[in-house]
Every structure is written in C-alpha cells, then in structure tokens.
Design goal:
Radius of gyration: 16 Å
Strand order of the largest sheet: 4-3-2-5-1-6-8-7
CATH class: Alpha Beta
Oligomer: single chain
CATH architecture: 3-Layer(aba) Sandwich
Strand content: 25-35%
Bound molecules: NADP nicotinamide-adenine-dinucleotide phosphate
Distance between the termini: 20 Å
CATH superfamily: Dihydrofolate Reductase, subunit A
Number of domains: 1
Length: 184
C-alpha cells in the first residue's frame, strides 16, 4: 500500500493559519495545471484518510465530505462527526487512537493508494508510524509564521525522503514531490 500526503503549504511549512484560514492559497494564483494535476491524482486513489479538524473545516463551509465516492477513514474522537457527514456513497468509518493501526486496517482491506487528505496532526502521526510513502506539496509564495505544520507532531524521528520532482507552477509557486527513502 502506498500513502500519499498531497497538499499545499506556505513557504514556512504551514497548511493553514492560526484561524484555520486557507486564504494564503490564493497566492498560488490560478493554475489549471494544479487543478488538472489534482484531478489526475484523485483518479489514482482508492481510499482517503482525513483528520477531525480538516473535516470540520469542510463541513463548516458547507462542502460536506467532497470525496464520498472513496472509502474514507476519519480520525476523530467525536462519533457525532460521522452523522454530521450523513450518507456517503462509499463506506465512511471513524477510528481513534493509533494512526498506524488505521493504516494497517486500510492495507488489510486491500487498498493500494491512499490519499492522506490532512491535516498536519494526522500527517505527523502517520510519519511517526512511518506510513507516509510520498509527499506532494505545492509551496505558496508566502509565509504564515504559525498554524498547523505539514507534519504537526512532537516526536518525529529522522525520516528521509528522496526528491523526485521540483518545478515552477508558472507563477511564484512551486511543486515538490518526495518519495520516502527507507534505505537509511
Ligand atoms: N493546505 C491544505 O491544502 C490543507 C489540507 C488539509 C487541511 N488543511 C487545514 O489544516 C487544518 C487542520 O489541520 P490540523 O493539523 O489542525 O488537524 P487535523 O490533522 O485535520 O485533525 C486533528 C484533529 O483530529 C483528531 N485526532 C488527531 N489524531 C487523533 C487520534 N490519533 N485519535 C483520535 N482523534 C485524533 C483530534 O480532534 P478531536 O479531538 O476533536 O477528535 C485532532 O485535534 C484545517 O484548517 C484545514 O483546513 C489545509
């Protein structure tokens, strides 16, 4: 099973500001390339993992769960979030506790490519459990100073990644892609 953390961040590695605003993403500028890449990426995915704060952000803005066609694992303490999402086309399951165990369950279900949709707290725990195989990140040309980090956890050991893509998106933003390097 291959787990991809596909997201966007500020120059200083924040995925949202302290008020959970994503306004900084506007600095990336209109890029059909970015949208097309994301749709192409989604087409390769057969399961999604999302954290409680990211899901609440989507629900508050009236987006619902936009990927309800994909089997989804929600990592949250609050069981009420599942009913807030309502009915979904694919199974929607809540788990809490060990994030490593969540990925074990997904692998046992035969899923092959998992999108870690966010946020930084879940990504941090996934990295602690060494379950992140790939990171694809659009870097917006601005800094936030504070807010959830790309990997928001206290005790991440040295996990090395190999850079496989680094390109300009046409404006001032960049796309970086790393694969986990488990040789060291
Ligand atoms: N830049 C982007 O493209 C992008 C992508 C994704 C997200 N975001 C933004 O990032 C922010 C959210 O990121 P985040 O790092 O703050 O939060 P997150 O990872 O989405 O969710 C963290 C929350 O999930 C629950 N949780 C985490 N680990 C758990 C565990 N092991 N067991 C049970 N529950 C667990 C806890 O909430 P409870 O205790 O309440 O259950 C925790 O506070 C939002 O503002 C979102 O919009 C941005």
């Amino acid at each position: 099973m291959h787990v991809v953390w596909y997201t966007a961040m500020s120059m200083d590695g924040r995925i949202a500001d302290t008020k959970q605003s994503l306004d900084f993403l506007e600095t990336i500028g209109p890029s059909d390339d970015t949208r097309g890449d994301f749709q192409a990426f989604l087409a390769t995915i057969d399961a999604v993992v999302v954290g409680a704060t990211t899901l609440r952000w989507l629900l508050r803005r009236g987006h619902g769960w936009p990927h309800d066609d994909l089997p989804t694992w929600l990592i949250a303490h609050d069981p009420g979030l599942v009913s807030d999402v309502g009915s979904t086309r694919a199974p929607f399951r809540r788990m809490e506790g060990s994030v490593g165990a969540v990925f074990q369950e997904i692998a046992a279900g035969g899923h092959e490519r998992v999108w870690l949709c966010g946020g930084g707290a879940v990504a941090g725990q996934a990295l602690e459990s060494d379950r992140i195989d790939e990171v694809v990140v659009t870097v917006a040309p601005t800094a936030l100073g504070a807010g959830p980090a790309l990997f928001d956890a206290d005790n991440i050991r040295d996990r090395r990644f190999r850079l496989v893509e680094c390109r300009s998106l046409g404006g001032d933003a960049a796309r970086l892609r790393w694969l986990r390097d488990r040789r060291t």
